[in-house]
Amino acid sequence: MSTNAQHPIGVLGAGTMGAGIAQTASKAGWPVKLFDINQSLVDQAKESIAKRFIRHVEKGRITEEESVACQNRITTTTSLDDLSDCDLIVEAIVEDFAIKTKVLHELGTIAKDAILATNTSSLSVSELGTACGFGDRVVGMHFFNPAPIMPLVEVIRGKESSEPAVQRATLLAEAWGKTVVHVADTPGFIVNRVARPYYLESWRIIEDGVASVDAVDGAMQLLGEFRMGPFMLTDLIGQDVNVATTRSVWQRLGNPSRLAPSAKQESLVEHGNLGRKTGCGAYAHDDKNNVVPAIIMDCQEIEISDELTSAINAFCLEASCTGGTMLEKYIFARVLGGIMNEAMWAVTEGVASAKDIDTAMKMGTNYPQGPLEWADKIGVEKVQRLLSALNETVADDRFASPPFGAVSA
Ligand SMILES: NC(=O)c1ccc[n+]([C@@H]2O[C@H](COP(=O)([O-])OP(=O)(O)OC[C@H]3O[C@@H](n4cnc5c(N)ncnc54)[C@H](O)[C@@H]3O)[C@@H](O)[C@H]2O)c1
Predict the structure, then answer these.
(1) pLDDT at 5
(2) Is 142 a known active-site residue?
(3) What is the mean pLDDT of residues 188-194?
(4) If you measure from the C-alpha of residue 48 to the centroid of ligand 1, how many angstroms do you get, rounded to a whole number?
(5) How many helices, marked H, and strands, marked E, lie in the chain?
(6) Cα end-to-end span (Å), the chain
(7) Is the confidence at residue 3, as pLDDT, over 60?
(8) Which atom of ligand 1 lies nearest, measured to the CA of 121?
(9) Does the pLDDT value for residue 141 go beyond 70?
(10) pLDDT for 249-292, tens place per residue?
């Protein structure tokens, strides 16, 4: 590790993300100025960052001297004026358009040359840029939680973002050890959009009374080698957080049926069953991390047409290295088919390149393979045949795929 930075990095907001981003930049050798609205918040953040560096020393990842140097590179402030000499400032404050706009405007006036990077998950980077009056210097830098560990950063180009601002944000994230993907300023960017069917199609399987939550989780882990099934994962994320992301992406994309929220999941949230944090969600959790399904169902036997059976078998033969029951294959094909379809729509609509979509899904959500490279291995014709057979079984046209040929790598 060396201090290879001339100018400090500013981080605005010392909460979950801000503290993680400050830790990431200081570990890579950058002096960091960490801002929050009161001293106790920045002190608290510095203390938790120090604890994490000390844990690295205990695990033998860094030396005691390096830990002290990393901690010393972070200074704290409650005055925006102190950020005037920053090269780039990452804004990680509350997800509120008016507050972010006001703060970005003040920052742009104080730090006249700084790139203003917003870590927003659900607001438009272009709209923030225009509203704050410094659109050419505003870019999106979307880190994932926990920021020091998650390797991905989505760099978002706003309508007015200058090329040097996009390039500088990219170079800095890479210098901090991150993998960067470039994304157009579209709802959910890559990861929060393309991952939606993993959750939503799984909830629709429950709503259809076809399989239980543990059966869906099991099928995705067995046939797809996903590290965690969709229900266990949403219990961990928080069903409320997951529902809020779905609602935001769905509404901002103009309410497509593919991404419509699940009534069953929303009702779980309305009843306060938010997942592990409340002890109950899709599963009931005890304090020893034991779980049992909390959604009790009387599952119906599914009727699958000959054409759909044949399309599922052809898809699964290439998509999975493991055999399974027809129900497991049906679940896996429905959920993975939905993800591939969303990835195809995203690339067709110019959200990002196929390569960046695959990279983002592997690094931002730990998918075993990128959805588009997975579809290529299966054969795009087989994927399209599955989607069209599945679309015959639904009333909302949600498996309709982009025109064949529109999807290219
Ligand atoms: N938590 C996540 O998993 C995650 C992931 C990616 C992106 N994000 C985005 O990162 C941003 C921050 O999220 P978080 O989870 O760290 O939130 P958080 O609530 O943990 O922290 C936000 C911090 O911003 C500070 N703040 C509030 N108003 C401020 C103001 N006017 N000026 C300066 N600081 C102010 C708060 O005091 C707080 O310390 C949001 O835009 C969120 O959408 C969050």
Answers:
(1) 61
(2) yes
(3) 98
(4) 16
(5) 17, 10
(6) 37
(7) no
(8) 43
(9) yes
(10) 999 999 999 999 999 999 999 999 999 999 999 999 998 889 99
What secondary structure letter does DSSP report for 258? G
How long is the chain? 409
CATH of domain 9-184: 3.40.50.720
Coil, strand or helix at 117: strand
Is there an atom of ligand 1 within 6 Å of 103 CB? Answer: yes
Q: Is 12 in the pocket of ligand 1 (CB under 6 A)?
A: yes
The pLDDT of residue 296 is: 86
Cα–Cα distances in angstroms (integers) from residue 205 to residues 28, 247, 258, 334, in the given order: 45, 19, 14, 9
Instruction: In whole angstroms, give the CA distance from residue 20 to residue 156.
Output: 20
- Has residue 199 got a pLDDT over 80? yes
Decide: 128 in ligand 1 pocket, CB within 6 A. Answer: no
Stretch 369-380: mean pLDDT, rounded?
A: 97
pLDDT at 125: 98
Q: Where are any strands of DSSP class E within 102-239?
A: 115-118, 138-143, 152-157, 179-184
Give 300's Cβ-side CA count (13 Å radius): 9
- Ligand 1 proximity of 15 Cβ (cutoff 6 Å): yes
Question: Structurally, what CATH architecture does the domain formed by 193-391 represent?
Answer: Orthogonal Bundle (1.10)
Whole-number Å distance, alpha carbon 17 to ligand 1 midpoint, is 6
Q: What share of the chain is helix, strand, coil (3-state, %, to 5)?
A: 55, 10, 35
CA of 91 to the centre of ligand 1 (A): 8
Catalytic residue among 7, 56, 142, 182: 142
pTM over 0.90: yes
